[in-house]
């Protein structure tokens, strides 16, 4: 695999024979593309984590790994290096507030956990999952891939409302404290381009939910003027 660099130049000048015909871009060149995704700067500013996506032609799949690039005064300091193993899929890096831990999404073997953590300094060691989250919020939930296609409210065909309802009921049956909020006139893009009142209401509910779970504050109240349905 070619070593990626966030700071590479856009082109390289090479000597060209006058009579040679330049080779154009071919469709199969797609298999050799290397794409940089999910860039995350460490709080100390000395490391940047990013996802490297490559194409595995023989398997007809994409492969993602997390790499680190050392920085000094905002510039690359040496070569980028692979941080996660080549044998597992890893993406979406996110730093802990102290910059000592890197969280990322990964599916590893038969382990059901998708959130993994790895120490960046000090003792290092293998990546590990955790089940110690005291609270969580999910939006645009997908739980049933068989009924996923074409089952949502138009014009959004990606996240059927039934999947969120199934997730809600599954947590209820496991006696996990849970609240489900459904907004009117809204689609998958509510958190970015939704109606201002609904967007603010969503943010306030998320803040109140964490207050309720982490600080034992009162449960967030229902707001019939904004949410079309609240279930607990």
Polypeptide structure, described:
By secondary structure, the chain is α+β, with helices and mostly antiparallel strands. The chain folds into 2 domains: 30-129, 6 Propeller (Neuraminidase); 161-231, no CATH class. Helix content is 16%, strand content 26%. The strands form 3 sheets. Strands 1, 2, 3, 4 and 5 form a 5-stranded antiparallel sheet that branches. Strands 6-7-8-9 form a 4-stranded antiparallel sheet, with no helix packed on it. A two-stranded antiparallel ribbon has the order 10-11. The longest helix is centred in the last third of the chain and has 20 residues, at 196-215. The relative contact order is 0.08.
Which structural traits does this protein have?
single chain; 16% helix; globular; 3 helices; four-stranded antiparallel sheet; Neuraminidase; 232 residues; alpha+beta; five-stranded antiparallel sheet
Mean pLDDT: 80
Please tell me how large the radius of gyration is: 23 Å
Supply the helix-strand structural class. alpha+beta
Write down the overall geometry: globular
The CATH H-level homologous superfamily of the largest domain: TolB, C-terminal domain
- Poorly predicted runs are 7-14
How many β strands by DSSP? 11
CATH topology of the largest domain: Neuraminidase
- What number of domains? 2
Level-1 CATH class name of the largest domain: Mainly Beta
Order of helices and strands: EEEEEEEEEHEHHE
Largest sheet: 5 strands, antiparallel
Distance between the ends: 49 Å
Q: Note the beta-strand portion.
A: 25-35%
């Amino acid at each position: 695999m070619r070593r990626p660099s966030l700071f590479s130049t856009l082109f390289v000048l090479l000597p060209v024979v006058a009579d040679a015909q330049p080779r154009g871009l071919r469709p199969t060149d797609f298999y050799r593309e290397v794409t940089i995704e999910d860039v995350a700067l460490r709080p100390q500013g000395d490391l940047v984590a990013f996802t490297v996506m490559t194409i595995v032609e023989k398997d007809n799949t994409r492969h993602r790994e997390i790499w680190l690039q050392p920085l000094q005064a905002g510039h690359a300091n040496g070569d980028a290096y692979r941080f996660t193993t080549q044998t597992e899929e890893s993406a979406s890096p996110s730093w802990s507030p102290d910059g000592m831990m890197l969280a990322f999404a990964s599916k590893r073997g038969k382990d059901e956990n998708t959130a993994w953590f790895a120490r960046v300094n000090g003792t290092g060691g293998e990546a590990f999952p955790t089940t110690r989250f005291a609270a969580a919020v999910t939006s645009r939930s997908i739980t049933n891939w068989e009924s996923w296609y074409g089952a949502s409210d138009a014009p959004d065909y990606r996240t059927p409302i039934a999947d969120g309802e199934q997730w809600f009921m599954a947590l209820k049956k496991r006696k996990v404290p849970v609240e489900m909020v459904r907004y009117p006139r809204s689609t998958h893009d509510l958190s970015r381009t939704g109606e201002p009142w609904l967007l603010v209401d969503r943010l306030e509910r998320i803040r109140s939910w964490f207050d309720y779970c982490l600080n034992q504050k009162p449960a967030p109240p229902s707001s019939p003027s904004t949410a079309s349905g609240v279930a607990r």
